[in-house]
Amino acid sequence: MTRMQTTDQTLDEILALAAAHFKVPREKLAPDDDFFKTLGIDSLQTLDLLTKVENHFGVELPDYELQGVTDFRTLAGKIQARL
Amino acid sequence: MKRFQGKTLSWTWQSGIIEVVLHREPCNEISSLTLEELEKLVAVLEQLSTEAHALILHSALKPGFCAGADLRELYGWIQEHGQAEVVRHARAYLERIHQVMNTIDAAPLTTIAAVHGVTFGGGFELALACDLIIADKMTRFCFPELRLGLIPGYGGIPRLKRDLGNAVVRDLLLTGRSFNTTKAQQIGLVSQVVGEGEALRAARATAVQMAKFDRVTAVAAKRFIKPIPEAELRQEIDIFCELLERPAVQAGLKKFVESTDAQPYLP
Q: Would you list which residues of chain B are within 8 Å, Cβ to Cβ, of chain A?
């Protein structure tokens, strides 16, 4: 991971993290997917995803910024804003 | 009683270490039964501590250490008894749980919370009663109570303020946000951060290290450095009960309990 990366790179890394953590084939995940539905996760598991992403990118994203966020692309944008 | 098998928690004693494991599905929500079983633990803690130097508290459940108070039970009480009666009931309940937390806080042995995943509300407060917190890197801490119109009621604010200071309490309390172990270590909340699933192992290694020290000295050091914030704990109960009387709290609980939102745990 580099700090000077593009949103597309951030998005790609988030998709890879989600696939690995929730044991879903990477090719089954698309940027605009609703991650609750695609990953079959609830709110507690969403916090797992947030923690994975925060640890990977070395950022802190207050979870109230995730309210209403359901797709990987928007999540990537939120992370990108803190890199 | 060196061994106990309860419905919400169990404990064992071995080689001077008491291990308490929480195991109430889905995420160790603290119910009245949990409180009863915690009371059983603290009732024997003094006696156990004559043959133990450390106590480790951890969870057997994958989602986390503890998601806090059983809000469905609290909502059920309100439905059954009405708001005014619930305040009286809540005060008695809080007195009991404060007694448990205070006993763990001042226990004459070293207490370690080995946490992972969700460590929210009352679960966070339970961890704060311990001397050390060892967290795996997937742990999240949170005081979500404000979104229900309440404050934490199990002693969390005075203990966090005692250990870390007022600014940290304000940040966590007033935003209701959860935070990860990196942040927790930065602010001094967590003594060790370990890999996923490694908190209990690290806690056991730490407990073994503690066996090397003279117990009288260790207990004296703890009493000196970790006073119970009695006055603020009393205030906390009063403020909690005042807030609980308001219809807004009932509305907040109803919203949480009846929520079909996929994100009820997000503030």
A: 27, 63-64, 67, 117-118, 137-140, 175-180, 182-183, 261-267
Strand order in B17-22's β-sheet?
A: B3-5, B9-14, B17-22, B54-59, B110-115, B132-136, B192-194
pLDDT, position A3: 57
Q: What percent of chain B has pLDDT over 90?
A: 77
Backbone phi, psi, residue B110, to 5°: -90, 130
pLDDT at site B265: 53
pLDDT digits (tens, 9 = 90+) for A16-34: 999 999 999 999 999 999 9
User: What per-residue confidence (pLDDT) applies to B267?
Assistant: 45
Residue A40, amino acid:
G
Q: How far is B257 from chain A (nearest CA, A)?
A: 14
Cα–Cα distance for residue pair A49/A69, rounded to 1 Å: 13
Query: What CATH number is given for A7-80 in this structure?
Result: 1.10.1200.10
Residues of chain A neighbouring B67 (CB-CB closer than 8 A)? 44
CB contact under 8 A, B140 and A62: no
- Give residue B212's Cα distance to chain centre: 28
**Cβ-based contacts of A36 with chain B (< 8 Å):** 262
Q: Say which of A46, A51, A62 has its CB closest to residue B263.
A: A46
Q: For the residues A9-19, what does the mean pLDDT come to?
A: 94
| pLDDT surpasses 90 at B259 | no
Query: What domains can you pick out in chain B, each with its CATH number?
Result: 3-258 (3.90.226.10)
- Phi and psi, residue B21, nearest 5°: -115, 130
Average pLDDT of the residues of chain A:
90
Measured CA to CA in angstroms, residue B217 lies from A24, B45, B111, B221 at distances of 53, 19, 15, 6
Residues in A closer than 8 angstroms to B118, CB to CB, are 44, 47
Size of the A and B interface in Cβ pairs below 8 Å: 59
pLDDT of B158 over the 90 cut: yes
